[in-house]
Amino acid sequence: MSGSKAFFKHKSNSSQMVTVPSDLLVQLLDVTRSLQKLLPSDLPVTLLDVTPEEAVARVGDEGHNSLLSLALRHHALLQQRNEELLTQHGRCTAQIEALQEDKQELRLQLLEVKRQLQQLQRSRGDPLPPPTGTVEGAKKSNKVIEEPMCPCKENITEAELEERNFVGEDCVCENVTVSPPPPPPTTPAPKLLGTGARVKDCAGHQSEGETESGMYEIYPSECRAVRVWCDLQTDGGGWTVFLNRQQQPKQVNFTRTWKEYRQGFGDVTAEYWLGNEYLHQLTAKAAHVLRVDAEDFNGSRRWGVWGRFRVEDEDHNYKLLAVMYSSNSTLGDGLLWHSGMQFSTIDKDNDKHKGSCAHEYKGGWWYNVCHNANPTGILTNSDDFDSVGWVYWSPRQYKWASLRWLQMKIRPQNFGTPDPSDGPGDCSGD
Question: Rounded CA gap, 294 and 301, in Å?
Fold first, then answer.
């Protein structure tokens, strides 16, 4: 039957006829048996125990239908298992690399402590300790680490000096004047930049002649000002930052409600979310470019650019469009998985996960099932996927990276080209 070219028709659930060649059916059965060997033994799916000849002979009573359905089920199970293994492999690889980096960092810290210890001994005039491993070396090493510095004679008796293994003649106190610590530096109040021009974004400020990055006021809705951080240096400038994450003494909580993500929250000079409604107003009428700049906890910086970025209105739950990823980017396309998704928060779940991605990963985001990027998670150096991080830290390489700094920012595609129709309208009556 292997050379047979007979065809058999199968009626699907949609009442369409599907033609299945008999030799293809035999091959499908062989492939299905191979898939069965790769699947865990406890799966409740078993192959039909028939030979290829029997399978072809049973075509009339829909034997081909059961075999075809079974093969497709096995394929889906195998694909799911393969994706789980890839995810586990990526996490294990990231953990191994993180442990290796921690080991290297601890080794460098140990060398630095040894260097400081040697400098301290030289400054006191003490001989360097004998090699460790001897009783004498162990005693002197313990003295250096555990014993206090030589106390002043006027504050301690000779008997106490001898008890602490200090020789009175060698214990010399100098009159050292200790200056009081300087007062902590004061943090200047953030300065609002700009000439007061009523422009809708940071690109507008740059077109007005501004060149300094900092805090500006923009008018996304034409007549209502909102403060934002403008990046006017990176890659030609013109960037309106809508998300900023950074290490600071007290991190901003990004586990927020739908209303908070709609209106925006945080400190424009530090960590903040501009607001989904402002994102929609900025990107609704003109095509925009997205740029992401990030730094991991090892000091490595990467960037990525998406040539088309848009956020729809609240009626569409601020649906995201992030496409046209630039192949020159050093940061992987962690947004492909999220483009086309609606926004989700802890009180409004729009993801495809059976649970709540916002609750599980501690943020508000365009979650899918659940994420390849989690910019609104917890800012901490962790391998856990609820931290601020990016799955494709390197393009085409599945590797999770926790981030200590991240900026997401947009600018018009026609940046640098004057557009008179792009300015705010008349607000004299407002």
Answer: 6
Q: Which tokens sit at 89?
A: 């492999």
Q: What is the pLDDT of residues 318-375, one digit of tens each?
A: 999 999 999 999 999 999 989 999 999 999 999 999 999 999 999 999 999 999 999 9
Give me 266's structure tokens: 């945080």
What the block records as the tokens of 167 is 């020789």
Burial class of residue 116 in the structure, from the number of CB atoms within 10 Å of its CB (0-12 exposed, 13-18 middle, 19+ buried): exposed
Q: Do residues 412 and 288 lie in contact, with contact meaning Cβ atoms separated by under 8 Å?
A: yes
Coil, strand or helix at 144: helix
Q: Which of 246, 396, 271 is nearest to 336 (CA)?
A: 396
Beta carbons within 10 angstroms of residue 96's beta carbon: 10
- Contacts of residue 337, Cβ cutoff 8 Å, sequence gap at least 6: 368, 371, 372, 373
CA-based R_g, the chain, Å: 33
User: What are 265's two structure tokens?
Assistant: 């929250």
Count of Cβ atoms closer than 10 Å to residue 367 Cβ: 26
* Both structure tokens of 139: 């005693």
Q: For residue 165, what are the CA distances in angstroms to 131, 142, 158?
A: 20, 12, 10
- Let me know: does 274 contact 266? Beta carbons within 8 Å: no
**pLDDT exceeds 90 at position 179:** no
Give the H or E element holding residue 31: helix 22-38
Name 31's Cβ contacts closer than 8 Å, sequence gap at least 6. 71
Helices (H) and strands (E) in the chain, counts: 9, 13
Residue 69 to residue 52: CA distance in whole angstroms: 16
Cis peptide before 370 (omega within 30 of 0): yes
CA 292 – CA 305 distance, rounded (Å): 7
Query: Which strand (E) or helix (H) includes residue 292?
Result: strand 288-296
The answer to whether 244 and 231 have CB atoms below 8 angstroms apart is no
